[in-house]
Amino acid sequence: MPYELIYTSVDKGLKLGSRGFCTVACTTGLAQNIMTMLESLSGYRYLNPPNSDGKNNPVVYSSLIFQMNGREQHIISRIADAGLDYSNRSNKIAHHFLFTNQEYQQYNQAALLSNADSLFVSQWNQEPQWFPAAKTINIEPLPASVCQYWQTLTGDAGWAGVLANTALTGQNVCLIYSEDQNIQQLLIEALALLPTKIQWKVSFSSFYTKYPPGVTCQWKCILKGSQEESVVQMIPDSLVLNLTKPLPSLDISDDLTAELVALARTGSLENFHLEQIIAQQQTFSSFNVDYAKEGAEIERRDFSAAKKSEKMISSEDFFRLPEEDSSLLNQMVQVPVPGGPGDALKMQNVAIEELNKYYEALVKNNQINKQRNIIFTSVLIVSIAILITLIISVFQDNRNVKEDLEAVPEVLTELIEQPLKEPVHKETKTNKPPKSNKTNNNSSTTDSIKTNPAVENVKEPQALEEAASDQPATEEVTPN
Fold first, then answer.
1. CA-CA distance, 440 to 5, in Å (whole number)?
2. CA count, 13 A, side-chain hemisphere, 45
3. Phi first, then psi: what are they for 54, rounded to 5°?
4. Which string of DSSP letters, residue by residue, matches 341-367?
5. Nearest to residue 111, comparing CAs of 137, 136, 133?
């Protein structure tokens, strides 16, 4: 059963000490983080100044999808102007129904939206309260019928089928409408064309404004002249239907859209093959699951090992594929609409053939990637080796330079001190007589040179010759 939460402005809220805009009623057992999320989705934009009855502003109906606590959550809401609050200021009221655990598929979304007046509250005049249990909703599904309001508004009811088709393609839609158009009825008629399970693939807002990140809204109903209209063209790959202008004539190219357009125009389910066409356009994972129910368990398979043993994928292997692998086929092959067991077998064979091609390409790509990795690793190793060699060489050179620099002071000291040392000469022990007076002048000159430190290494030519011959020179003796 769905959970409920009601959010409005009161003097005393459900939580202790809360007042103003806050939660006034909630189902027991609703997680706190989900309560916070629902409160954040309770925003409202006024188009006109609020008055006492709150009827001069649009009512927002929405069906949104978001992930919370590891599960997909579906929320159906009504948010509207609620006149003036206890402090005589503008007020709003938001009433949310939260569906979890696949229970939403028990309810027809078009029927819920059609019975919105009895399902949602528009005012809150009670004390804050906890609802003891999830509410039971007993509403009969709304069958498909001729889309009369689409016919009146656009001139062709088939446009409702075009909108319904996007529930299967996942394409974003922008519906631009004016205040005098009943956008709620347009949504009801389009949703009713789809099976109940498919209806819940659609998320929508009848008065679209920006939602928090992670919240999905596929059908965005944008009021003419609102600030959201300026960003319509910025939404990628979206279908834009401007209901304030005449729409062009329909040109249908695919079978599924043609079936839905025909249903919107006639309301007749005779010769209606929507389920078969949906089976064709859905992913092969769904096709796989249907056969798996007959006994084939879906399990993971090591296809690389299968390729190594040169095993191709057989019919039995196909129905044991992992879901994410089999779903890839939907993007690779267009299969004819199954009309019976024979066509289903053709689908199976085509799928097996395409899957074999896919895995052959996959193995080839893996081999190329391995070769690239080997080359890259080799280049990296060689580069590291060269770098290490350069580092060692530079370190060794620095070490030699350091040793040379340390030896420089010693060399310089030796070079400086060597000229200052007395030269060592071999002296002959032969007694030399005194020189004659004729050589006194020369002797005195020589003695003066020898006593000069700056030229103490300079020798007389005669002395140099005597030193070279190593013989005592004959001196002339002058008598007294």
1. 137
2. 12
3. 70, 30
4. HHHHHHHHHHHHHHHHHHHHHHHHHHH
5. 137
Q: How far apart are CA 17 and CA 288, in angstroms?
A: 55
Q: Tokens 């807002």, residue?
A: 205
- Give the predicted TM-score (pTM) of the model: 0.58
Tokens representing 173 are: 């839609």
CA 65/CA 215 separation, integer angstroms = 6
Quote the CA–CA distance of 241 and 245 in Å, as a whole number.
9
Q: Is 352:315 a contact under the CB 8 Å cutoff?
A: yes
Q: What is the pLDDT along the chain (480 residues), one digit of tens a residue?
A: 789 999 999 999 998 889 899 999 999 988 899 999 999 999 998 888 877 566 778 899 999 998 887 788 899 999 999 888 888 888 999 999 998 767 777 889 999 999 998 999 999 989 999 998 767 788 888 888 999 999 999 999 999 999 999 998 889 999 999 989 999 999 999 999 998 888 999 999 999 988 888 899 999 999 998 888 887 877 778 899 999 999 988 888 777 788 889 889 998 776 665 665 565 555 433 333 333 333 333 333 333 443 344 344 444 444 444 444 444 444 444 334 344 434 444 555 666 666 667 667 777 777 888 888 899 888 989 999 898 888 888 877 776 766 666 676 776 777 766 655 555 554 444 455 555 444 454 545 445 444 444 444 444 555 555 555 555 444 444 444
Quick one: which of 155, 165, 115, 161 has its CA closest to 137?
A: 115
Sort 476 into a burial class: Cβ within 10 Å, 0-12 / 13-18 / 19+: exposed
What's the token pair of residue 463? 């002395």
User: What SS3 class is residue 58?
Assistant: coil
Q: What does residue 206 show for φ and ψ, rounded to 5 degrees? A: -75, -15
> And the tokens for 389?
């060699």
In this structure, is the dihedral angle defined by the CA atoms of residues 270, 274, 280 and 281, taken in order, positive or negative? positive
CA neighbor of 85 nearest in space, from 5, 7, 4 = 7
- Whole-number Å distance between alpha carbons of 395 and 401: 10
